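Consider the tokenized backbone below.
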């Protein structure tokens, strides 16, 4: 009876067996050659009709600006950011999108030349992979967002097999889809490209009592992004599409009061770099890489299910300049 039950689970691809690996590999190999990634969450997390979507996103941007005016000094709000972090506090896998800290950096928006946005997204469904690239262009109800395939190819050459092993995770992942949507909304017909990079968690490394710096995949990714920016040139902006803490009844927590909310928010701030957002710096010098990655590792163990830290840490370490400027976000 047990043997029959296990065999049924195997047939249903519910066990990590050679049958499952073969099916997964076939699905991934069929997905890789596709040139376009269809929008996965239109009509669920955001309106599918362009006009309704524009109104929906306009409200997000207006709310973000109001939050910025309330939280930050006026001179910091007006400052231009070299890197934009687009953060979310609520899961959207089965719910409409809530207001996000959308890319509103004036440095990014007012540039008339072609801009490149390196988008690091949290890979919620990456199965043991620390990174997943894709060469696909992203479809949105507002139009197509072009992938910088030359940039992706250079990184893939450095990563080898690890580059596309987990690519299938891009198919349903919201973290980069939302950033592509916001960028298209904000930039409209102005020319820009994205470099979509999904980042996995550090949990497996921690279970193996290793640090992120001891894994060649992460170090290679960081170095490859930095070197490719220098080699290809052009205006480059870094975006981290991340979720912070996941708390509440949906995740099995007791009722959340105001005190707990404040504690969770403090944890989220510390998960990035331990400073309030209006004092946070946007570009991380090279010599801060070990501390940044170590902080991401520690945040991965937090009881609030914060999945932002590994992605944010990788994005922060990948920036190419040692100059620091405040980010345009609340």
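A designed sequence for it:
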């Amino acid at each position: 009876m047990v043997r029959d039950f296990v065999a049924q689970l195997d047939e249903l691809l519910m066990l990590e067996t050679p049958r499952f690996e073969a099916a997964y590999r076939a699905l991934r190999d069929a997905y890789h050659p596709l040139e376009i990634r269809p929008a996965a969450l239109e009509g669920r997390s955001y309106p599918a009709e362009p006009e309704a979507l524009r109104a929906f996103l306009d409200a997000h941007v207006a709310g973000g600006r109001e939050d910025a005016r309330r939280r930050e000094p006026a001179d910091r709000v007006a400052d231009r950011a070299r890197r934009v972090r687009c953060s979310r506090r609520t899961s959207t896998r089965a719910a409409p999108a809530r207001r996000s800290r959308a890319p509103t950096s004036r440095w990014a928006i007012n540039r008339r030349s072609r801009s490149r946005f390196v988008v690091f997204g949290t890979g919620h469904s990456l199965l043991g992979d620390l990174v997943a690239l894709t060469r696909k262009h992203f479809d949105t109800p507002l139009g197509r967002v072009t992938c910088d395939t030359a940039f992706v190819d250079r990184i893939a050459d450095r990563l080898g097999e690890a580059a596309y092993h987990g690519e299938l995770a891009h198919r349903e992942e919201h973290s980069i889809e939302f950033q592509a949507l916001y960028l298209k909304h904000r930039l409209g017909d102005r020319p820009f490209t994205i470099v979509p990079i999904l980042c996995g968690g550090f949990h497996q490394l921690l279970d193996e009592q290793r640090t992120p710096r001891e894994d060649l995949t992460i170090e290679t990714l960081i170095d490859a992004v930095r070197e490719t920016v220098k080699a290809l040139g052009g205006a480059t902006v870094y975006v981290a599409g991340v979720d912070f803490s996941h708390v509440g009844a949906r995740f099995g927590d007791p009722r959340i009061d105001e005190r707990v909310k404040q504690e969770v928010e403090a944890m989220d701030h510390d998960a990035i770099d331990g400073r309030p957002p209006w004092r946070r710096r946007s570009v991380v010098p090279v010599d801060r890489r070990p501390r940044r990655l170590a902080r991401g590792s520690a945040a991965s163990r937090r009881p609030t299910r914060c999945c932002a830290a590994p992605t944010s840490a990788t994005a922060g370490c990948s920036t190419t300049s040692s100059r620091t400027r405040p980010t345009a976000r609340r």
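Residues 121 and 176 are 5 Å apart (CA to CA).
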